[in-house]
Design goal:
alpha/beta; about 15% strand; 13 strands; about 325 residues
Length: about 325
């Protein structure tokens, strides 16, 4: 049975459960991604459920067969580091899953510290990584100095039990970080409830499709995924491919945490101006006619998630 998430420290990984009330201060983007990956390894159904998991209804979140208890990690991080670590839908949705579950409590650090710090009630230490630890990276498989983020390790330096008391008040006073990207579970739920499961599956498959038209990001392991604007465009395009009612699609997008109905008014305009969608009016016995979305051109011809993404590539303000 899994023992819980462990950070990749040297000389050996450190299970977070060994620390009482752990607090991580000022991690760089790669260390933040390492935290998310540590949780994903022991609770993949929570952090990064597959389309099959969600469609089958077998995955409900935490899986007791994988881990009995996920420790709560309090994180005080710079906003720029969080933004870099959560760039792209896939990376951000994993973090969102941990925030929704309460496994990670993420707050914004006002001023950078000399080094990242990991502290519990009884011990604390600095974390020293490679010289390029804070360099931006496109995804959690990025190559850096011949290795990848998953190869990255940090050295623990010192043993100072006062660190938790020093940074604890700062954490308590800090603002919560408001992540604007939803988890995969929320996206699936929003579309499954407002539309149906087939639409929810199609949306996630489109969001999972490679972003790079050359296929350069279609390497083993997940990429960071589309940015928020591309995420909304892909989602609305799927709705048109599935001929969803315009009002229903907007409400599903809102339920899924992807944006307000007014946000998708702009997305609809962009796709219409690109001649990729139109609407068909449907009369009702009572009230105004309903508008059903209909795909046009390359979007109408798309048969796979990859072709759908290719059809809307380049759609922008």
């Amino acid at each position: 049975m899994a023992t819980g998430p462990a950070l990749p420290l040297l000389p050996e990984p450190l299970p977070l459960g060994e620390l009482s009330d752990p607090l991580l201060v000022d991690p760089g983007p790669r260390l933040l991604r390492a935290v998310v990956e540590a949780y994903r390894e022991v609770a993949p159904a929570l952090v990064d459920p597959t389309v099959g998991d969600l469609a089958s209804g077998e995955s409900k979140g935490r899986d007791s067969t994988q881990v009995d208890h996920l420790p709560t990690l309090r994180v005080l991080a710079g906003e720029s580091a969080i933004d870099a670590a959560a760039a792209g839908f896939r990376s951000a949705s994993r973090l969102a899953a941990l925030l929704d579950d309460g496994a990670v409590d993420l707050r914004v650090l006002d001023a950078p510290q000399p080094n990242p710090v990991l502290a519990g009630d009884e011990t604390g230490f600095a974390l020293i990584g490679g010289e390029n630890d804070d360099a931006p990276a496109g995804d959690d498989e990025s190559t850096v100095d011949g290795g990848t983020d998953r190869d990255r390790r940090w050295h623990r330096v010192g043993d100072d039990a006062s660190l938790r008391g020093r940074y604890g008040p700062d954490f308590a006073d800090a603002e919560l970080y408001r992540l604007r990207t939803p988890s995969r579970r929320r996206v699936y739920g929003g579309f499954a409830s407002r539309c149906d499961k087939s639409v929810a599956v199609a949306v996630l498959r489109a969001l999972d499709a490679p972003t790079d038209p050359t296929g350069a990001d279609d390497s083993p392991g997940p990429t960071a995924g589309p940015d928020p604007e591309e995420t909304r465009i892909r989602t609305y395009a799927v709705g048109a491919r599935e001929e969803v009612l315009d009002r229903t699609l907007r409400r599903a997008c809102e339920d899924a945490g992807l944006g307000s109905p007014s946000t998708f008014t702009r997305i609809k305009r962009l796709l219409r101006e690109s001649d990729l969608i139109e609407t068909a009016s449907e009369s009702q016995p009572v009230g105004r006619p309903r508008e059903r979305l209909v795909a046009r051109g390359a979007l109408a011809a798309a048969e796979t998630a990859e072709e759908t993404v290719a059809a809307v590539r380049g759609v922008t303000e």
